[in-house]
Structure formats: C-alpha cells, structure tokens
Amino acid sequence: KRDENLQINRVMDILGIKQASSVADIGAGSGWFSVRAARRVGAKGIIYADEINQEYLNYINDRAKKEHLSNIKTVLGKEDDPNLPENSIDAVLILKTYHEIQQPIQLLKNLQKSLRSNARIGIIDRNGKGDDHGLDQEIIVKEAAQAGFKLVESYDFVKPDGMDFFLVFTAK
After folding, report:
1. Helix and strand element counts for the chain (H, E)
2. Which pLDDT band, with edges at 50, 70 and 90, does 103 fall under?
C-alpha cells in the first residue's frame, strides 16, 4: 500500500527520475525507495542509497543482491555530509527523514557539490512540530534557503490523509 499512498511513481516523475538517471536516496533506511528508483533508472542509472547507519546499508546490499539490482550503491553518510561523489546526482529524495537530520543546513550545503545542473531535491515529510516525527514545512523551506536552495514546487498529494507534504527544491 505504501507505493499507492505515497504515489511514488508520481514523485519520481516530478523529480525527473528516468532511465539512466543518477539518484540519491538520503536516509535510505531499508531501501524501500532505492529499490523502486533502481528499477526505474535501469542498468545505465545509479542509485546512491545513503545512510548514517551501517546496519541499514548492509541490509540494502543484501536486498539489492537478492533482487538483482546491481545499480544500487550504498554510501555511508555523516550527519552533516552525505559523502556523495561530486557532480554526480540528477535527483535526490529525502523520504520521511528530514525531521531526523541533526544538521540539515550543513548536510544540504555539503550536498550542493554532488548535484549536477538542474538537479531536483525532493523532501517528503509529515506536518508536525519536530518532536512528533514531523516538521513544519516552513522550517524546511527556510533551512534549504540558508543552504542555497530555492523552493520550486510543493504538493500535498503524497498521502490521502493530508498529513504529508512534498517539497521540491533546486540550487539557487
């Protein structure tokens, strides 16, 4: 049901994720999005499953092998730096993780060097107050601006209950 609720194919369309794209899944967790994106980008694309937790990366590596997805590359990020290769990313998704990031402005600043021109950054999170696994989207917009990004689109379709939002940024 998660695919349907989050309308993940629509999300990938909006972010411009297509065959041969290079995509970063920051806060990849179990790899739910990484796997879906890997299927979409095909053999010529690459998915960077980025996590600060090595156990999650081990799980994603095992899952990618079982599902024959050789285009998923796991990356051990830091709280303030995703550690992605320079000028390598066409699209980024931070799915239900932004509210957990300890140093979001610094992380986004460090992400800049990894982005190709016209790269799109998508952030899906839940409306909230920070202590309830959610965040006010205006905080994200403000922090992204401080890191050098501008909001280009916002949506509320990602869940039927209206609790989630989807923000799309590009570099200024």
Report:
1. 6, 7
2. very high
Is the pTM value of this prediction over 0.90? yes
Angle between helices 54-66 and 32-41 (to 10 degrees): 40
CA distance 99 to 55: 21
Cβ neighbours for 172, distance < 8 A, ≥ 6 positions apart = 145, 148, 149, 150
User: Amino acid identity, residue 172?
Assistant: K
DSSP, collapsed to helix, strand or coil, labels residue 125 as strand
What would the DSSP string read from start to end of 2-67?
HHHHHTHHHHHHHTT--TT-EEEEET-TTSHHHHHHHHHH-TT-EEEEEES-HHHHHHHHHHHHHT
* Inter-residue contact 71 to 48 (CB < 8 Å): no
What residues pair up with 75 in beta bridges, in sequence order? Answer: 50
Q: Compute how many other C-beta atoms are within 10 angstroms of the C-beta atom of residue 28.
A: 31
Tokens of 45: 């694309």
Is residue 84's pLDDT more than 80? yes
